[in-house]
Structures are given as structure tokens and as C-alpha cells.
Gamma-glutamyl-gamma-aminobutyrate hydrolase
Amino acid sequence: MSAFDPGVRPVIGMTTYLQQAQTGVWDVRASFLPAIYFEGVGLAGGTAVLLPPQPVDDIIADHLLGGLDALVITGGRDVDPATYGVGRHAATDEPVPDSQTRDAFEFALVRAALRRRMPVLGICRGAQVLNVALGGTLHQHLPDVVGHPRHQQGNAVFSTSSISTVPGTRIAALVGPDTDAQCYHHQAIDRLGDGLIVSAADADGVIEAVETDPARYPDHWVVAVQWHPEERLDDLRLFAGLVGAAAEYAAHKTQKVSP
């Protein structure tokens, strides 16, 4: 085969939780991901593969991504603030071994994906992971910054934020000049990571999307949003953008290995 087969759905790796979970009579440590995440990938034309957090080095992370066409860093617990050099705020999730394993696993996957020029989509925690992996920092508790808790109301109730995008960015091309977004986050990006640009913000000035700077990463499709696109599967624009980029990446891989 000399070119990518359009009938083959690109394979999207999605990171997962690692924590105690209950199912039936069992109460065990488990790796899992809410189905709505991989349903979004499937509806957009991709095939999802779940990636459980585990100890890896850069070589293993690179090998792991070898069978994938794109990567999604999903939502979850707060990133350990020690990874960006500060002490823990009282409202920040207390780091535990499983969450620290997940942090290190996702940082390694981000580094490997960037080396491979693999498409990446970060969602909520995923945007924060991308930023910290590239040397940025986080606001640990947004109410201290913006003066209200509306970004995370609690009790698993998502709030709707009005997001304005930056003209000329990938996010603007995908969702237009503005959009309503489902939000559930008490943390957000503070100092930008190296090679990232802001591509959307809300009315409070909170960074709601970042992406790689095309001047620094001209061949990369790397986008991360602070909101939860999987909560609105009637709007697949972000997932469709990822799957389209993954198909192009897969075609390029196939052409490289074809005789």
C-alpha cells in the first residue's frame, strides 16, 4: 500500500485515570476512562485505544506511540505542583503514588509525541499537563485569582463559559471566533510553557486554550483546551479536527515505510 487507506480509521491513544474504583462487589485500584471521551473520538471517525498510566522512560514512551496516529491527554486529578516547582495549595488534590505515576506517564507521552510530530489534543487536565511538560506553571485555585467559583461549581455540575478565540490560531479555525464551553476546573494555566501560545480565553481572562507556536513547531498539530468538548457530542469540531490531523499523520507514516 503506497498511501493511507481512507477506509481505515486512525488510531487515537487516550490516557486514563489510575485510582481506586468500585464496580459491583469489587473495590480495587483501576485504570479507567469515562466512555464519553472515546465516544467522541469514535463519532468523529477515529478508533480509540486506552493507555493506562504506568512507569515508562522516554524510549518506552516513544515505542508505545509507534502504533498510534494521535494522542489525547484526558481530564482528571490535579497535577502535582512539585512538578512545576511550587508547594501545594490547600485546595489542590494531594499527590499520591498513583497520581504521580500518571503525571510522569503523561509527561513522557507528551515529549514523545512532540518528537514524533504526532497530533495531540489536551482536555482540561490535559491542557495543564501539556503546559507543565513544557516548563509552564498553573494557578492552583482559580477563585483566589478571579474571585468566584463559577469555573467549577462542584457536585459534577458543569458550568457554561463563553470563550473567545485568538484569530489565526488552530482553535479559531476549528470553533470560530467564539464558543460556549462546558467547564469544570478550579485550576488553569498561569505562566505559559515554552513554545506554546494562547489561542482562547474567557471573560475573566482565564486561558481556555493553548497550542504550539507555529513559528516554533511548524509541522505540529498540538491543541489543548481547558474545557470539556466530550460533554457536548453534538459538537464534534475538536474531535473531528484531531481525527483529520491523525489521518494525515497516518498517511505520512505509511508513505515513509512503503517501498
User: Anything to note?
Assistant: The mean pLDDT is 91.
